[in-house]
Amino acid sequence: MIPWEYWGCFLMLGAAFVTDIKSMKIPNAITMTGVAAGLCYHSITSGGSGALFAIKGAGIGFALMFVLYLLRAVGGGDVKLFAGIGAWLGTGLTLSTMMYSIFAAGCIGLIIIIWRREALTRVRRVAHTVLGAVILRSVAPIKTAAQGQLQFPFMLAVLPGAIMSVYYF
């Protein structure tokens, strides 16, 4: 039997998947409801220890994704979504989901670059950016290059990442 917290998390992820695919945004209504519902579920089923489990998971999910947000690797909705994942699944499964999601995103990005035949151009651009940053001793070239990053809905990687995480955990 599949635990209820998995159902709650995957309900939130399903809604986030649909909206992210359509608009490349994950609304606060989905993420904040997910965080609150996960916290309530664990508080009701396990009391104070359940609340602490959910708070720690949400905090870890939020904090680590916030670092990626500062690096402009993910959007703000993804940060809040991982807080919701943490509230439902706790620290261990959240970290596992994050790892599998980042791996899946890398694979998806690589497939897109190869499909578009941009691999050589992108490698050259990265080399120029790194060389520019070293020569100028500044992060300005990195910030400029960040504007031309490959973008796709991160939920294309998060949903398979969550599935792999739950399957292998």
UniProtKB/TrEMBL annotation:
Keywords: Membrane, Transmembrane, Transmembrane helix
UniProt cross-references to Pfam families, sorted A to Z: Peptidase_A24
Entries under InterPro entries matching the protein: Prepilin_IV_endopep_pep, Prepilin_peptidase/N-MTase
Location of the Prepilin type IV endopeptidase peptidase domain: 9-110
The keyword Transmembrane helix is annotated on this UniProt entry: yes
Signal peptide: none
Entry's transmembrane regions: 51-71, 91-114
Family classification: Belongs to the peptidase A24 family.
Protein name as annotated: Prepilin peptidase
Taxonomic placement: Bacteria, Bacillati, Bacillota, Bacilli, Bacillales
